[in-house]
Design a protein that fits this description.
Elements: H1 8-16, H2 97-100, E1 111-112, H3 132-141, H4 149-160, E2 163-164, H5 171-185, H6 188-196, H7 205-217, H8 225-234, H9 238-250, H10 254-264, H11 273-283, H12 304-312, H13 319-322, H14 327-335, H15 341-353, H16 359-372, H17 378-391, H18 395-407, H19 412-421, H20 423-427, H21 439-447, H22 451-455, H23 466-474, H24 484-494, H25 496-508, H26 514-524, H27 533-544, H28 547-556, H29 568-580, H30 584-597
Antiparallel strand pairs: 1-2
Helix pairs in contact: 1-3, 3-5, 3-28, 4-5, 4-28, 4-30, 5-6, 5-7, 6-7, 7-8, 7-12, 8-9, 9-10, 9-11, 11-12, 14-15, 15-16, 15-19, 16-17, 17-18, 19-21, 21-23, 23-30, 24-25, 25-26, 25-29, 25-30, 27-28, 27-29, 28-29, 29-30
């Protein structure tokens, strides 16, 4: 099922037969109002993508970006675009691109991606010899966000890293598919970085679509300005007409902006929320002279257009509307720096469990809340307990503060978020401290990947206990082994689900020999020897060392918002493939996360 497939039809048939081990979500829907992301008609078959500008988009092309929010009833398909086609051509065409972007500053389409500070990039050859059409189908069909925090982190880094463009796909289209999957994962900033590594004169229709959504997801409508003209020529929809109007306003051209927005909103109501938000952005420019009041009464759907423009202009989105959007919109909210920290802290905790927010990011956010001086809020109380957990000189007081934070969590997901929040505080508790049950401390450290401090507790945990299981999985020693007898002790005490996940993790990491792995699999009823098209694909990618492809296929195998739907068999193959591909750290943390969140 790997990259040997050379025909797009065969790739689609192969993907349709994948038995995804973790079912769980409805297909996401578009984040924009109808028409904002309608795709282009399929071009005539050709080995390379057709560059924009090209014929207008028509509804119904397969493979369009798929979001998470239902359409909001805004018809953009039959509007008059005024005199856009009446522009007077200059008598002498002058190529200005050589002055705007000299050759030495241009980005190659042969390798696209960015380096994230502090994170080692995946290999540029990480997708191996996979056909571009196969990779595109995988990315389009992955329903994100996915269940595992650590699998999400691995996938984000794989999609962001500079990667060689595979055969049978245009470089800009390949970057667009990567960015679109990142957006659906909630990674607005990562998606924007990938989009920005493609020069606008290389944009395809697909890239125009995704680039608009990345600008909206990051709350930056000005990000549409470099591409507004080209996007309007390639995609004849009202969203691009409104974008040109907003960009004229932001450029300090109020008269031109007024004419453009009047043309763009023809045929729509004067109280149309999308028009009003666009006009509010337009008025934010120099000499804007427009005062627009936004009323959310009657608005029943949150879209990327509405969220992005409201966030950019400081308009608060009603909390009830977030329930009409997918979870990634909450993650975009968590990343938006111009939203008040107290308003986004709950979203940030959720984003942390999905790998979008880090331990350091959460701690910084609560620090900002404490500095604001609102001592009566629940978030301020958390900030005070967090300060004690990190800075108090007495270990007992630090432990008490951490326990308070853990116990205050109301759901399993927020409890995991609190473990992430306290990770570094937990790592500063000495391993010789008299802690009766250090399992939560160990789980907290490992939630942020702090395996070194966690392993210091190796001699303090009881064999066969929860702490033993976490450390048996987290042990970075290449020759680490686990006792089968200790496993049976854990199995009898922990219950069937955790026993299955532990067996899958230990077997995938090679902690048992083959005979012990089979014996344990039979004892807890895990079919680690079963195969289907997905298991064969990820196993083969792991053996070849195609790290980025392994990360992508791991996401395919975890298409659920909850660990409840991730099978032990899927966990086994993901962990084993990552270990084989040299991704041992990710493999260990995913196995630990499975036990922690089960």
């Amino acid at each position: 099922m790997q990259g040997r497939t050379v025909r797009a039809g065969l790739a689609i048939v192969l993907l349709a037969g994948i038995a995804v081990p973790a079912p769980g979500q409805d297909t996401p829907e578009s984040l924009l109002p109808p028409g904002f992301d309608d795709p282009a008609p399929a071009p005539a078959p050709a080995p390379a993508a057709t560059r924009a500008p090209q014929q207008p988009l028509a509804p119904g092309e397969p493979g369009e970006p798929v979001g998470v929010v239902p359409d909001a009833g805004l018809d953009l398909s039959n509007l008059d675009f005024g005199n856009a086609s009446e522009a007077v051509e200059p008598e002498v065409a002058v190529d200005l691109t050589q002055y705007e972007l000299p050759e030495f500053a241009r980005h190659s389409l042969a390798r696209i991606g960015v380096f994230a500070a502090g994170n080692e990039a995946f290999p540029a050859t990480g997708f191996g010899a996979a056909d571009g059409r196969y990779l595109r189908a995988l990315m389009q069909r992955t329903a994100a966000p996915i269940a595992s925090r650590w699998a999400s982190i691995a996938l984000r880094r794989a999609l962001m890293s500079p990667a060689n463009t595979p055969r049978n796909i245009d470089g800009a289209d390949f970057a667009a598919e990567r960015a679109w999957l990142l957006l659906r994962m909630g990674e607005a900033m990562a998606a924007r970085a990938v989009v920005n590594d493609v020069d606008t004169d290389n944009y395809t229709t697909r890239m125009f679509q995704v680039a608009m959504q990345s600008a909206l997801a990051s709350g930056d409508p000005a990000g549409m300005c470099p591409m507004a003209s080209g996007g309007g020529q390639a995609i004849h929809q009202r969203g691009w007409a409104l974008a040109k109007a907003m960009c004229a306003g932001l450029a300090g051209k109020p008269n031109e902006a007024g004419q453009l927005i009047t043309q763009a909103r023809q045929g729509t109501s004067a109280s149309d929320i999308d028009n009003l938000l666009s006009e509010k952005v337009l008025g934010a420019g120099a000499q804007g002279r427009r005062a627009v009041t936004i009323e959310w009464n009657g608005v029943t759907q949150l879209t990327a257009w509405r969220w992005g423009l409201a966030t950019a202009t400081g308009v608060e989105v009603p909390a009830s509307l977030y329930a009409t959007a997918g979870p990634q919109v909450r993650y975009w909210q968590a990343l938006a720096p111009n939203i008040d920290p107290a308003a986004r802290v709950a979203a940030a905790e959720l984003a942390a469990t999905a790998g979008v927010f880090s331990n350091a990011g959460l701690v910084d956010l609560y620090s900002e809340i404490e500095q604001e001086g609102d001592t009566g809020s629940a978030a301020a109380a958390v900030a005070r307990d967090l300060r004690i957990a990190y800075t108090d000189s007495d270990v007992a007081d630090r432990m008490k503060a951490m326990q308070t934070l853990w116990d205050a969590a109301e759901t399993p997901r927020t409890r995991y978020a609190r473990l992430i929040l306290t990770a570094r505080a937990a790592s500063w508790v000495p391993a010789n401290a008299k802690i009766e049950a250090p399992e939560q401390l160990i789980a907290s450290m490992l939630s942020a990947g702090l395996e070194g401090p966690a392993m210091e507790w190796r001699t303090s945990v009881k064999r066969g206990s929860e702490g033993w299981a976490l450390l048996a999985l987290a042990d970075p020693a290449p020759d680490a082994r686990a006792s089968y007898g200790d496993f049976t002790t854990y199995r009898d005490a922990a219950g069937p689900r955790k026993a299955q996940l532990l067996l899958a993790g230990l077997a995938g990491l090679g902690r048992f020999d083959a005979a012990e792995a089979q014996r344990g699999a039979q004892a807890v009823d895990v079919q680690i020897g079963g195969t289907n098209s997905w298991t064969r694909a990820i196993d083969a990618a792991g053996q070849r060392g195609d790290a980025s492809l392994v990360a992508l296929l791991a996401g395919v195998g975890m298409q659920s918002r909850s660990w409840d739907y991730v099978s032990p068999e899927a966990l086994f193959h993901i962990v084993a493939a990552m270990r084989a591909a040299g991704m041992g750290s990710y493999a260990r943390m995913i196995a630990v996360e499975a036990i922690t969140r089960a």
